[in-house]
């Protein structure tokens, strides 16, 4: 392969910098946007060789200026930017610009969020009181006969047309407040997993007792119509949910959902814990026993959360950590680490003779070291011993490490049907405040693993400490089973329910857990987007430093045509999103619940990482009282510090608001429409009109935002007539240069007009909710608006994009040209609006300015128009992917920037070419990884540059000149040699081609790291009154018939409403 071309820069050219080479590059399938990537080749500066003809700099400047004038005239004409600027200038005397107080803003948002979350807590407390009172008044009846609404059987009929048992008629209606699901808001119903018998006496008594919750559910919802799902998860396995809903089994007819497995249940039922799982991998564990042991470990891992810590040690005639990276430590049991452990457990092999003493000693030492170092949970500590028997003398280990205080509980799980070692296993558990169970089948694992939670909950139950628990963010599984692609992340508030009966006090009986969901999207609506400026945003993180909500959180990835949650979607650290916070100053302050502010210079990726903005952001933060959450608000310096205020009459505003070309940001809250059922079918525009006309006095609206919308409607109204006249006058022209013109304002108002028939629009998704980047959302202003806001006043930013998005191959490229309209009052400047035009890329090439440029350039020269990030907009040839250009390193033109993505998904490289086939299959699965990728940015201070590119033995002269009033550059080269023989550089390759060894090291370091975290306030590890002799039975437990029939493949999440 020939070497890369060498590059020389004319030392006489202005702004001389170190040389580099730009290559026009296309994606592997020519679907990707072409980009010019800068490669630094040499620091030696040379002049062009003697007899070579130079490209005249003055001539190129004349071309650039002429092209710039024509282009500016075209886009100002079609966008109407000068008219809109004049209209805002006309009303300038009635406008004011207010400086935003970031600390006051974040405190206000925090107080509103606290009030909302407090209402959820009050609802949950009402349920706890009702459940405990109902249990106190209920006397257990072994022979109770009771019919209830079973959520699986409701409305089901037998072959005779009669309702099946537990399946009476249950009225269901679609409800927009509950994601348009069919529900019954007058009553709850009951779901049970397949492995729980629906007429077991414990179930019947619990369901009968919990009927008392029905009126409380309804009253809670009446008091707070923003409540969503309310529920009671019983320790016996049933799940009462309000509103009542039809539950559908999976394709195997199985209901695998068990409320006792869910994070909200486990976190509310127990205090934080350090767990070391010790598993026997000796030869006697082969076959089904090892399969059961693996499933038991997986079930234990499912009972852990981000406030817990864990490790797994396997032993035979020697011990080994199943993850060598974790040797001698405990790691946080977040989703990422749990899934990592499950993959490793699946690969465990059996061999040798089991010697448990050394493994137990290692486990005790880890727990002791972490306790002494004040690491881990600093609360419960336990060892889970999973084996088919223990033969050696293990008592000395407990004498040395755990007696007499018994600070570490030991839970034993005897695998298989053999009962020879049952007494020994129970002895270990009972003498270390643990619990013994025997697991004979896969179906036994769930019920038997849950026993350890009952033991750990005893101290809290005896004390009657009703701790309030808030979970980390988790995915609403409706997202994964419906056609909707909208992100639905939740947090749950939960509280334990105890038996108050005196005769059972020392037993510490946990009846269950009640909870209610909070959609994080609804919570973030309390930080209105319009108050944060063009680039501002709000975000939430947890006491562990994990993101709860952030506009740059990407919890899903695409695999084929399906969207799937990333394995680590709810354990993304704040430092992985706000990665410019390298000293973690922001992270530390927010985890500690501090109130304050700091500033950072940041590089903000745009357009899926292809572009970057350089901003100075001010971060304001505070805690949300009585929760483990902290809130941050970000405002960008400059126009982001100001908010434009104005006023107009309601009559004028209404007149100009009711135009068919006008829409409002569908995600923004102008009026509250999700509380009153009569309002839920209203659009935001319809609700605002009813509010302004007094037609509906009960509507609650954001009066400040409504005023801004009315003003913007009046000021922008003349644009409709302007665009209409332009379209009529342009109809006789032979060419259609622009598809549409549109504008948006800081109040989320959007106007647009078409200059062509709708069937000729080059990108039909543009300005629709399907194309989130082009519209106002809760998280971002439109891409074209954000880019325009950072351009110099009066200039346009041109952006090249693929019509219909990157998932639609073969679609034409389109170009948007946008500019911002700024208003200055008392030396303060705020962005009022943005305007843009939209057209096919081919039209750009064939339009007046583009055609003129290509005609005036001599035959012996090649001309390209590129944007400030190196993307080609206009070229002389239809395939322009092999035109070389120029660049500068340092502060020159253009600069290469390294950006980072800590939420990427990569296909790892195989290190085992001889591995089995199924191992190869696993290599194809995308996994979380860290990546870096280049972005190229033109430095506006560099007006022109010129030099030489060496292609082997040939030299190619180039000149590059800025095009006025735009983000574009004119690149002119001589065609004397062909540099296309050299390899192209793809931006995508930098993202996905990563060093797997480096990634493995980074992943290990991250999972080992003990980052700063704030532990939960309460801990309930032991209680002197607890009955430690309730530690399991040595009699072999047999599974019920439904459990024995449950297939292995059934242990999957159910298709709906899983939380």
UniProtKB/TrEMBL annotation:
**The organism's lineage?**
Eukaryota, Metazoa, Chordata, Craniata, Vertebrata
Q: Which organism is it from?
A: Ursus americanus
Q: Which domain of life is it from?
A: Eukaryota
**Gene3D superfamilies for this protein:** PAS domain (3.30.450.20), von Willebrand factor, type A domain (3.40.50.410)
Q: What topology does it adopt in the membrane?
A: Single-pass type I membrane protein
Alphabetically list the UniProt keywords. Calcium, Calcium channel, Calcium transport, Disulfide bond, Glycoprotein, Ion channel, Ion transport, Membrane, Metal-binding, Signal, Transmembrane, Transmembrane helix, Transport, Voltage-gated channel
Instruction: Please tell me one Gene Ontology term that the record gives under cellular component.
Output: voltage-gated calcium channel complex
Instruction: Name the InterPro entries on file.
Output: Ca_channel_alpha-2/delta, VDCC_a2/dsu, VWA_N, VWF_A, vWFA_dom_sf
Q: What is this protein called?
A: Calcium voltage-gated channel auxiliary subunit alpha2delta 4
């Amino acid at each position: 392969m020939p070497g890369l071309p060498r590059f020389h820069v004319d030392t006489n050219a202005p702004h001389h910098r170190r040389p580099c080479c730009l290559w026009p590059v296309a994606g592997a399938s020519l679907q990707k946007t072409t980009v010019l990537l800068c490669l630094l080749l040499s620091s030696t500066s040379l002049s062009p060789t003697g007899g070579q003809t130079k490209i005249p700099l003055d001539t190129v400047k004349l071309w650039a200026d002429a092209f710039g004038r024509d282009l500016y005239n075209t886009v100002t004409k079609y966008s109407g930017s000068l008219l809109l600027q004049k209209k805002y200038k006309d009303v300038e005397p009635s406008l004011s610009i207010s400086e935003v107080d970031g600390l006051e803003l974040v405190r206000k948002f925090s107080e509103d969020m606290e009030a909302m979350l407090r209402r959820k807590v009050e609802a949950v407390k009402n349920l706890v009181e009702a459940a405990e009172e109902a249990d106190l008044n209920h006397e257990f009846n072994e022979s109770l006969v009771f019919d209830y609404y079973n959520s699986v059987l409701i409305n089901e009929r037998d072959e005779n047309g009669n309702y099946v048992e537990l399946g009476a008629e249950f009225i269901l209606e679609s409800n927009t407040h509950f994601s348009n699901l069919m529900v019954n808001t007058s009553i709850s119903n009951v779901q049970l997993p397949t492995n729980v018998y629906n007429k077991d006496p414990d179930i019947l008594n619990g369901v009968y007792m919990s009927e008392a919750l029905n009126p409380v559910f309804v009253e809670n919802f009446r008091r707070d119509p923003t409540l969503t799902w309310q529920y009671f998860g019983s320790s016996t396995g049933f799940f009462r949910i309000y509103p009542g809903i039809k539950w559908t089994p999976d394709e195997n007819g199985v209901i695998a959902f068990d409320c006792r497995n869910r994070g909200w249940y486990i976190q509310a039922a127990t205090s934080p814990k350090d767990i070391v799982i010790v598993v026997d991998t000796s030869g006697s564990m082969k076959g089904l026993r090892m399969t059961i042991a693996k499933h038991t470990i997986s079930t234990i891992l499912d009972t852990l959360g981000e406030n817990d810590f864990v490790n797994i040690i396997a032993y035979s005639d020697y011990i080994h950590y199943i993850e060598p990276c974790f040797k001698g430590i405990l790691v946080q049991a977040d989703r990422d680490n749990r899934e990592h452990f499950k993959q490793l457990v699946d690969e465990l092999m059996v061999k040798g003779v089991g010697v448990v003493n050394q493994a137990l000693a290692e486990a005790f030492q880890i727990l002791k070291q972490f306790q002494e170092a004040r690491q881990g949970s600093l609360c419960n500590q336990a060892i889970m011993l999973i084996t088919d028997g223990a033969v050696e003398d293990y008592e000395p280990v407990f004498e040395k490490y755990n007696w007499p205080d018994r600070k570490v509980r030991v839970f034993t799980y005897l695998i298989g049907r053999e009962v020879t070692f049952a007494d020994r296993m129970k002895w270990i558990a009972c003498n270390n405040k643990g619990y013994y169970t025997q697991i004979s089948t896969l179906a036994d694992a769930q019920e038997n693993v849950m026993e350890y939670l009952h033991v750990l909950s005893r101290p809290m139950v005896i004390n009657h400490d009703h701790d309030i628990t808030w979970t980390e963010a988790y995915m609403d599984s409706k997202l994964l089973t419906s056609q909707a692609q909208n992100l639905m992340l939740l947090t749950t508030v939960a509280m334990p329910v105890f038996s108050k009966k005196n005769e059972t006090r020392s037993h510490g009986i946990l009846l269950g857990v009640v909870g209610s969901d909070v959609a994080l999207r609804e919570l973030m609506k309390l930080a209105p987007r319009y108050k944060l400026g063009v680039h501002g945003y709000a975000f939430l993180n947890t006491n562990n430093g994990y993101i709860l909500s952030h506009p740059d959180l990407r919890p899903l990835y695409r695999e084929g045509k399906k969207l799937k949650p990333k394995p680590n979607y709810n354990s993304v650290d704040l430092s992985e999103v706000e990665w410019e916070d390298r000293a973690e100053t922001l992270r530390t302050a927010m985890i500690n619940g501090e109130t304050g502010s700091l500033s950072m210079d940041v590089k903000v990726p745009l357009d899926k990482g292809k572009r970057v903005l350089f901003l100075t952001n001010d971060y304001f933060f505070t805690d949300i009282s009585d929760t483990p959450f902290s809130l941050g608000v970000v405002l960008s310096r400059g126009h982001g510090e100001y908010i434009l205020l104005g006023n107009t009459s309601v009559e004028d505003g209404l007149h100009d608001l009711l135009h068919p070309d006008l829409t409002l940001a569908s995600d923004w809250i102008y009026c509250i429409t999700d509380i009153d059922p009569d309002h839920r079918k209203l659009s935001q525009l319809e609700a605002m009109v009813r509010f302004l006309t007094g037609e509906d006095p009960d509507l609650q609206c954001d009066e400040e935002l409504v005023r801004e919308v009315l003003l913007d409607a009046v000021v922008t109204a003349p644009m409709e007539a302007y665009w209409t006249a332009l379209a009529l006058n342009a109809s006789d022209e032979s060419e259609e240069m622009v598809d549409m013109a549109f504008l948006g304002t800081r109040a989320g108002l959007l106007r647009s007009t078409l200059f062509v028939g709708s069937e000729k629009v080059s990108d039909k998704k543009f300005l629709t909710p399907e194309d989130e980047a082009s519209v106002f959302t809760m998280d971002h202003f439109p891409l074209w608006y954000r880019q325009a806001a950072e351009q110099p006043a009066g200039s346009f930013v041109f952006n090249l994009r693929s019509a219909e998005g990157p998932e639609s191959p073969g679609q034409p490229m389109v170009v948007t040209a946008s500019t911002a309209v700024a208003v200055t009052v008392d030396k303060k400047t705020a962005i009022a609006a943005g305007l843009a035009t939209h057209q096919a890329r081919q039209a750009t090439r064939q339009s007046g300015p583009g055609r003129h440029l290509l005609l005036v350039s001599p035959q012996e020269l090649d001309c390209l128009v590129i944007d400030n990030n190196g993307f080609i907009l206009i070229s002389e040839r239809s395939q322009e992917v092999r035109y070389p250009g120029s660049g500068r390193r340092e502060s020159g033109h253009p600069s290469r920037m390294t950006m980072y993505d800590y939420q990427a998904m990569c296909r790892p490289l195989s290190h085992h070419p001889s591995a089995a086939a199924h191992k190869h299959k696993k290599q194809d699965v995308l996994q979380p990884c860290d990546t870096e990728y280049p972005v190229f940015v033109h430095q506006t201070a560099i007006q022109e540059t010129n030099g030489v590119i060496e292609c082997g033995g040939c030299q190619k002269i180039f000149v590059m000149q800025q095009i006025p009033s735009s983000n574009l550059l004119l690149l002119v080269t001589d065609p004397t040699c062909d540099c296309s023989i050299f390899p192209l550089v793809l931006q995508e390759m930098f993202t996905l081609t990563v060093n797997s060894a480096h990634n493995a090291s980074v992943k290990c370091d991250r999972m080992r790291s003990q980052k700063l975290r704030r532990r939960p306030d309460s801990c309930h590890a032991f209680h002197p009154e607890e009955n430690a002799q309730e530690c399991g039975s040595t009699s072999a437990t047999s599974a019920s018939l439904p459990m024995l029939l449950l297939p292995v493949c059934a242990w999957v999440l159910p298709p709906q409403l899983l939380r």
